[in-house]
Amino acid sequence: MAVGNETVVYLSEQVIVLCSCALSCVGSSLIILTYAVWSDLRTTPRRLLVYLSVSDWLSAVSYAFGVWRVFRTDSLDCVVQGAVSTFANTSSFFWTVAIAVYLYVFIVRSSQRGADSLVWFFHLVSWGVPLAITVAAVCLNKIGYDASEVSVGWCWVRIHAPDRVLWMLLTGKIWEFLAYLTLPVLYILIKRHIYIAVRHAALSEYRPILANRPPSHSFSSMADMKLTLIPIIFIVLRIWSTVRFILLLAGSAARLNPVLVTLHGIGNTSQGAANCIMFVLLTRPIRTRLCAALCCCSKCQADEPPSHGAPRTLLPGQDTSRPREEDSTSRVGID
Q1: Distance of CA 252 to the CA centre of its chain
Q2: Which in 31, 58, 170, 220 has the greatest CB count within 10 A?
């Protein structure tokens, strides 16, 4: 609903989006915690996931503050919140694509050294570009109260900025559009490569694993499912903000629809929770350890492989004499 130029954010919408922010904070924290606690999970792909989780955590916290406050003016805390959320949200786009690029180089190009050499570049781009854009936007007085036209209570690009569409693109939308195009292409290429490798047993890194796994094992189906879901979940979560942005450009009042506003709020704040479900709760070795650590499931404790005095938990079919020669999907935790 709109009053003048302001979109009214209902209490029910606030509660739903705040719950989404809380879940995302918990999910991002859990990803970071599991990486910190279990040293054998500290692979490069997991480290990239941690950087993404830091961005998602910052994004969820800043959005939660904005939804809780529901700003009405260009106050100092509005500008600070808008700057933090702009930086974190844009950084999240870059890290999401960076993980896909890393997996592509590591799996499809079969070059771990080449993939690892990109990490410094990922840092430069994923932190540096969002920081530069945010600083420029703040210095030029572009961040502030936006009347929830393309937000849900939080601050973003000032509604009275004459070039606000340009700054909406620079501070998020253009990178969102590029992610929509890049992620499906990269993950389709990765899935295709793995399918060919598994079917023909052509790549050496898959042979020891396939030799120790029965054809009915759930590994392939789980990895395939996750490689399919990663870009789909990203698009499903982010599409609502894109729809509202397009409706704004078209001058349509449909962007003020309460259902669309709520979906926008949930989608923009749920990335951390979605990543936690995908890479923690749906990753059996990590889920087993969490269950055992929390003593909440005796079955999880019974299913945990015996450690024989070693702190490392090995996956089925993994050679203990060569702990680092895991298949690519296991190393990123998508199996």
Answers
A1: 30
A2: 31
